[in-house]
Fold:
Amino acid sequence: MTENSNSSINAILASMSLNAQAVVGKMEAIRNNYIETDWDDELRRRFDKLLRTIVMRRSSADEAWKERRECRAIVYTGEEGIGKTESLDRLFRTHPATAGYNVFGSGCTLLSVSVPASTSPIALGHTILQKAGRPIYKPLAEHAVWAQVHHQLELAGVAILHLDEMHNLTDSANVSQIDHIRKRLKALMVSPTWPVALVISGLPSIVPAMRAVGEIRRRGQFIQMPLMEMPADADLVSAALDRTCKLADLTWSDDRNLLVSRLVHAAIYRFGVMIELIQEAVELALLDGVEELTVEHFAAAYSDRTGCGRRMNPFLAADWLHLDCSLVLMAEPPSQILPADSSLVGRAQRGSK
Structure:
């Protein structure tokens, strides 16, 4: 960041009240506190397996790593908001093999690139070069751009290329572009001089295109991050609430089982969305200056996020389990969902339109 950039952010912070600044400080600590699950251990195990293939040589006498074997790939998929990017980011930041991750000029062995929306194979090549600090400004053919990609990865010692949001390329690609993608990824993995391992993440829709790459289909690891299940994951959600409230110096004493169930349903059973809803509800409680996190804070956070009224709010509706929370931006149904005599009616005003 430049000096002017720092000055502008400092000016925004200085414009806030002392209470708001204190809330920012607490929320910063909360958002930086990663909630681990058993899934992180499984992802680490798969990544370690990939690393072992990177350092395998065709001859143990080769001390210069000139004859490494062909590399492999991880294809990591899951629904939007499930927590793929966050879990990979945490893995790369904490793994000793990827020290210096996301720090320019650190010599990290891994380069992570977010695939732009509606991109093409040649545009992706340019994006990789830009992230590697070696942009090309003159027009080149696609094969020449990708030749530069491989050359720059080798010069920088990048042995692992992470392509995030890969569906931005595969979902809009035609048959010819899919074939080009297949050839470019294969060339990286089987290079005789510097084979590169791949970590490819995105929505489940990328799987058919990735299976079309023979080397990935035969030697890759396909991992799909699952949706949460109830009541199996109730303890996990409850523990996440406990941990976040402890960091915020809050308690929560509403009907725990009911709140946890409503929370998971509201998050469409996606772990990442669930964590965000907890954080947003906690922030509202901190701004209120109260000591207890309640269902009203969740209802208000959900309303802020979706724009829905209380009839479509799973934290308030009596038949919340029948709400399709993926359709919260649709017009509300005409029928009354929240009973008029519900004890929540008077408490839910912050969650109303």
